[in-house]
């Protein structure tokens, strides 16, 4: 008996142990990307003296991983839609982990920037693939809710990062010096944050490839074996009792390389010119499909939404610890004095002329506490989303979170003390991180299996391009006139919220 890919193939698996383990590892991968993306926010103030960084240097350092993400997003997305989700996820995690540890030993700023570029290049792949990989194993009735629980793991990453930083960076007795080589507490922090990538990469080796992707490539026997294994893990029953006995794919969605050859697209070698040519042909055909109806509209919408959202989120979240640090320094020098974010930045820069590289400055403990509070503030929205997404819809949450975040961003201009800055930072992080997860949830439903990861990658490329531009501009403007980036980022979020009105309702149908 033959079945097309349908809701019954996935429904027959049940829902149990395998799905919870899958949520755990993809969730932890997502949490790891939160750490990898924002780690620079704590490295900036800690490593300023060792690297003799100016504000301009800091802007370039925060931009380096963003540039890596711009290039890496589409590169890994293309590979994931042609070679497989699991292969690419494992590769990105292991590269991120090894290069992260290597970067902790680097003593030259341009080389350190290059390492962080590679980290951004690899982590972009993991971020863009974990949602489609998780979603392709889910039944329709569970899919949207399960994907929304990923937001809680992002919150976990945002909480763990300041805890790691607080536990390691203030330690004074672990500095190692030998000639021109030094290995301080911030170096240990960078290395510690790279270890989870390695652990997750090796753990992921025990998980299967997406059966939807295998069927898309024409590997029906492998897909059926994978489905039987999942059935056994969920039910404890004999895999031979899995009710689906054979699989037959719809010809219209099968990959070009698999249609034109007996060879599956997954088995094409990147070392053989003939196979590589066919692989690039597959990527080109899928890219053209994204840029034509019926997917063109959704491709443009998701790219524009990601651009506006990511430009604002990553720029401000990477610089928030720096702003907290500047507020603490200002309030220590001028107690009981109110000042805006722009005023604080300008005054502190003027006063810091005697110590331009902050070699005598120690990061105040409250900076870690403030960043931790920002992470903890995300817990209520992280719980609200999966519990209410079926009632209100992902589209409602997107519009609400982006609209309010735009108002909060504009409100930063009116901040007069560190407490107000902290409150607005908490609201901003809670709402924008919610929106980032929701964009990925929506993407899983908007595109078919053979285009899903590539569509996510294309939108990520647009978003990281915006993040790169935002970081470069913010690094220059924060010390001169910060009202311009505040207004621009607020406008970006508002426009993204308006664009969400044109998205369809999702989560109601089985994945194509």
TrEMBL record:
InterPro entries: MFS_dom, MFS_sugar_transport-like, MFS_trans_sf. The keyword Transmembrane applies. One of its GO terms (cellular component) is membrane. SUPFAM superfamilies: MFS general substrate transporter. It holds the Pfam family Sugar_tr. It is found in: Membrane. It is a multi-pass membrane protein. Keywords: Membrane, Transmembrane, Transmembrane helix, Transport. GO terms for molecular function: transmembrane transporter activity. This is Synaptic vesicle glycoprotein 2B. Residues 22-508 form the Major facilitator superfamily (MFS) profile domain. Gene3D superfamilies: MFS general substrate transporter like domains (1.20.1250.20). The chain crosses the membrane at residues 20-47, 59-80, 87-105, 111-134, 146-168, 188-205, 298-320, 367-389, 396-416, 422-444, 456-477, 483-503. Belongs to the major facilitator superfamily.
